[in-house]
Amino acid sequence: MTDILEVTDLHVAVEGTEILKGVDLTLQQGEVHALMGPNGSGKSTMSYAIAGHPHYEVTSGDILWNGESILGLDADERAKLGIFLAFQYPVAIPGVSFANFLRAAVSSVRGYKERARAEAGGGNKVIGSELMPMREFRQELLAKMDRFDVDRTFARRYLNDGFSGGEKKRGEVLQMAMLEPKIAILDESDSGLDIDALRIVSEGINKLVADGMGALLITHYQRILNYVKPDKVSVFYQGRIVKTGGPEIAHMLDERGYAWVEEELAQALA
Amino acid sequence: MATEVDRKALEGIKDEYEYGWSTPEDYTFKARKGLDHDIIDQISDMKGEPDWMRQFRHKALNIFLSKPMPNWGPDLSGIDYDDIYFYIKPTDHTGESWDDVPENIKETFDRLGVPEAERKFLAGVGAQYESEMVYHSLREEWEKLGVVFVSIEDGLKHHEDLFREYFSTVIPPTDNKFAALNSAVWSGGSFIYVPPGVKLEIPLQAYFRINAESMGQFERTIIIIDEGASIHYIEGCTAPIYDKDSLHSGVIEIIVKKNARCRYSTIQNWSNNVYNLVTQRALAYEGATMEWVDSNLGSKVTMKYPAVFMLGEGAHAEILSLAFAGKGQHQDAGGKVVHAAPNTSSKIISKSISKNGGRSSYRGLLKVGKGAHGSKSQVVCDALLLDSESRSDTYPYIEVAEDDVEVGHEASVSKIGEEQLFYLMSRGISEEEATSMIVGGFIEPLVKELPMEYAVEMNRLIQLQMEGSVG
Ligand SMILES: Nc1ncnc2c1ncn2[C@@H]1O[C@H](COP(=O)(O)OP(=O)(O)O)[C@@H](O)[C@H]1O
Ligand SMILES: [Mg+2]
Question: Cα separation of A75 and B420, whole Å?
Answer without folding.
Answer: 12
